[in-house]
Amino acid sequence: MPKKNKILYIINNLLIGGAEKLLLSVIDKLNKDKYDIMVCCLYSNNPLKSEFEKRGVTVKSLGIKNNRDILCIFKLVKLLKQERANIVHTHLFYANIYGRIAAKLVRVPIIISTEHSNAPWRNKQRLKLKIRLLIDRVTAKFCDRIIAISESVKDNLIQWERIDPNKIVVIHNGINIKKYQIMDKNRDGSSSDSVIGCIGRLEPIKGHIFFMKAAARIFEKIRNVRFILIGDGSLRQDLEKLAQDLNISKRVSFLGFRDDIPELLSVIDVFVLPSLWEGFGIVLLEAMAMGKVVVASDVGGISEIVVDKKTGYLCPPMDPNTLADIVVGLLKDPLKIRTMGLVGRERVKKHFTLDKMVEKTEHVYNTLIIEKLVS
Question: Which of 6, 7, 131, 371 is in Cβ range 3.0-4.6 Å of 87 for a Cys bridge?
Answer without folding.
Answer: 7
